Amino acid sequence: MKDVDSFLPRNEEEYLHTRVPDQIKWYDKKSSRNKKWFLSFKVSEIILALFIPFFSGYIQQNENSLKITIGILGVIVAAIAGLITLIKFQENWIEYRTVAESLKLEKFLFLAKAGPYKDVENAYPLFVERFESLISTSTKKWVNYISRIENDKVNAN
Prior knowledge:
By secondary structure, the protein is mainly α. The chain has one domain. It is built from 4 helices and no strands. The protein has helices at 12-56, 64-87, 89-112, 124-156. Helix 1 (12-56) packs antiparallel against helix 2 (64-87) and helix 3 runs antiparallel to helix 4. The longest helix has 45 residues, at 12-56. It is elongated and about 80 Å long. It starts with 11 loop residues before the first helix and ends with a helix.
């Protein structure tokens, strides 16, 4: 098994060419996936929900198959709405996008020696602290969310 230190960037150039782009790419990818899932579920939910009143207009007294179809559509719409709420695709999409853009901004400010890096003799340690702090804050939000879910499960029982 490899030592943890073997994964750590050894200098500023390596950090800027490995850790920084890897983290930005990770948050970009997570944001894109959550956006895709959210929009797919939401569009499906809307389209299926629109069929319910449409089919309802064609129900005749002895038309059980159409009643069953409408019921199934209602169940599917409710399930999709529940999944969107439970998995929080929209919230995750926004959170990951926010972090990705914040990481990009931090990188650009550092490279341009602007903002908090202006007039700082050795800005690299400050950059690493700020960059890692953005990641850490995001991770803490996720851990708090998971902890709340677990606490809700325990309290429900």
